[in-house]
Specification:
Oligomer: single chain
Low-confidence stretches: none
CATH architecture of the largest domain: Up-down Bundle
Radius of gyration: 18 Å
Order of helices and strands: HEHHEEHHHHHH
Shape: elongated
Largest sheet: 3 strands, antiparallel
Strand order of the largest sheet: 1-3-2
CATH class of the largest domain: Mainly Alpha
Helix content: over 70%
Structural class: mainly alpha
Mean pLDDT: 89
């Protein structure tokens, strides 16, 4: 995450956190313009901290800055998605393998509960939120701080793509729920090879869905 000036009572950092949340909750669609003035009014702040926050979000690749036009929610190209999902597949596969080897019984039970919650969700925003938590908990259970840091760095970009995918295809949520169960079953069985295969397959299917949603 980009470093922000902590001065002026941390207003820039507050604006960053607020706008990041708005973006990741799916209030904007890919290609939508992000108005500095509207955000300043909404957050009850001057334009200066909002401007700093928008610059930081652009540095974090959560927004695109188009010179002379302003900020926009990114439209990912096929090449962007390939880069993102190639890296995600390797990291998520490694996380699932590590979780199968090192997760506690309590962590497996928590994953099972999250999987059931995800399966019961009908709103794409809820599924996106609980799906992100499911994957984050698998990464934590792998007991590899460097792996977790790498996935955390990708998490926001992945979240933007996941929201586009789930919003565009109602059936994709049910497919993803089944894929989550396959990953969980392999972790619970303490089968690292099967867990890695299931996680990689899930990411590949997510890539396919994202291509259909974002590229058409």
């Amino acid at each position: 995450m980009a470093t922000l000036d902590a001065g002026r009572g941390g207003l820039a950092a507050q604006a960053y956190a607020s706008i990041r949340g708005i973006v990741l909750e799916g209030e904007y669609a890919p290609g939508d313009a992000i108005s500095e003035n509207e955000l300043a009014d909404r957050l009850g702040m001057s334009r200066t901290p909002v401007r700093e926050a928008l610059r930081a979000l652009a540095r974090d690749r959560l927004l695109d800055l188009v010179p002379g036009r302003g900020y926009f929610l990114p439209r990912y190209s096929a090449a962007d998605l390939r880069e993102l999902f190639e890296l995600r597949e390797v990291l998520e596969g490694l996380a699932a393998r590590g979780a199968a080897l090192r997760a506690s019984e309590g962590e497996i039970q928590a994953l099972r509960q999250l999987s059931e919650i995800y399966d019961s969700c009908r709103d794409w925003r809820d599924r996106a939120r609980h799906g992100a938590e499911f994957h984050a908990r698998i990464a934590g259970a792998a007991r590899n701080t460097r792996l977790t840091a790498s996935l955390t760095g990708l998490a926001a970009q992945i979240a933007l793509v996941r929201r586009s995918e789930l919003r565009a295809f109602a059936g994709r949520g049910s497919e993803a729920a089944a894929e989550h169960r396959a990953i969980l079953d392999a972790i619970a069985a303490r089968d690292p090879d099967a867990a890695e295969r299931a996680a990689r397959a899930h990411v590949r299917r997510s890539h396919e869905g994202s291509l259909r949603a974002v590229i058409g």
